[in-house]
Design a protein that fits this description.
The protein has 17 helices and 7 strands. The chain has 340 residues and is α+β, with helices and mostly antiparallel strands. The relative contact order is 0.11.
């Protein structure tokens, strides 16, 4: 059950934040600039309104995920650092003496509360609102293009992913473990069988877990937690070889990839205004109108669009002509269409 968050009670130690965290610290500036209250409104329907225990604030948990992305660390390391790093506690709106969450809470939050296809649009809209409010956007122009992303199937199998992280953990162990102790490491797996990799990696994790001195070395600890997190992921995340939505797309007539396309609209200030994610075989030009409409929905006044010849299809030409004709900048590569 989700209830509106209450103001936290004052702390006698609150002043330590001002003494330790500089005014120009990224997390302090982020807190001062961005109001994340919209997260509560967007996610409140994901919770039961009148039954169950009181849930943690989705804003609070979303901030944890932002820290995870910004600093690229595992859930366990993130929670541990949040316990002693005052810049993290300040960002999370905790008092210096407050406890932090259990790492498993983050995994549940991702899987149960953030399964929403509109999350990307929501975050892009908020970013644009902040940019417009602070007058970062000066020009009424967007640049439209698409970029490809390889599917996990084509990039790494579950077997490769597991062994890659296991190899990094072993390298970290070799730097600090004695030569005699290395003989006790579990035998490597090189037969290509996922089942054997799933048997080998937990053994490697257990080896580190049983040696408290080794486990507490930061370089080993980081790799240990990352591998543990991958192993504990559910089957959907772990089976990198299965991707039912990816398709073959072509970057040129001679090169191809298996995966997805992200069609983007970006302002002249290099701020992403809109995005549409499709399977890899979709053509770039199909999503021009949707990108323009999404950009305008953020509050951006779009007067012109810059794109390459991939967007010169009949449909887009008709769209431009209905909005005051094309203004050619480069007849071979770039056009600037007036859409007001």
């Amino acid at each position: 059950m989700l209830k509106p968050s209450r103001p936290k009670s004052p702390s006698q130690f609150e002043g330590i934040y001002d003494r330790i965290i500089p005014e120009d610290h990224f997390l302090r500036k982020f807190n001062n600039l961005v109001d994340l209250s919209f997260i509560y409104d967007e996610l409140k329907d994901k919770y039961c309104p009148n039954n169950g225990r009181n849930a943690l604030s989705p804003i609070y948990l979303f901030k944890y995920l932002l820290l995870k992305v910004i600093y690229n660390i595992s859930d366990v390391d993130l929670v541990e650092r949040s316990q002693y790093d005052l810049s993290f506690k300040y960002f999370l709106d905790l008092r210096p003496e407050d406890d932090v969450i259990d790492a498993s809470t983050l995994s549940k939050f991702r899987k149960q509360r953030l399964q929403d296809a509109n999350l990307l649009d929501m975050l892009l809209n908020k970013s644009m609102q902040i940019a417009l409010e602070n007058r970062v956007i000066q020009k009424k122009c967007i640049i439209v293009d698409a970029t490809h992303t390889k599917a996990r199937y084509n990039h790494k199998s579950a077997y490769q992913r597991l062994l890659e992280e296991a190899k990094k953990l072993r390298k970290a162990i070799y730097q600090f473990d004695s030569p005699s102790q290395k003989e006790h490491l579990p035998a490597k797996v090189e037969n290509g069988l996922l089942e054997d990799a799933l048997d080998y990696c937990p053994k490697l994790v257990d080896y580190v877990n049983q040696d408290e001195t080794l486990r507490d070395i930061p370089a080993v600890k980081e790799r240990f937690h990352l591998l543990s997190e991958i192993i504990s992921d559910d089957r959907e995340q772990l089976e990198f070889s299965k991707d039912q939505d990816a398709r073959i797309g072509h970057k040129t007539t001679d090169s191809s990839f298996f995966g997805y396309k992200t069609h983007m609209a970006m302002t002249d200030e290099r701020i992403i205004a809109a995005a549409v994610v499709t399977s890899g075989e979709k053509g770039d030009g199909l999503y021009l109108q949707e990108l323009v409409e999404k950009s305008r929905n953020t509050g951006l006044e779009v007067k012109s669009v810059i794109e390459d010849t991939a967007y010169s299809g009949k449909r887009n030409l008709e769209l431009a002509e209905s909005k005051e004709i094309w203004n050619w900048q480069n007849q071979k590569k770039t056009r600037n269409s007036l859409l007001n």
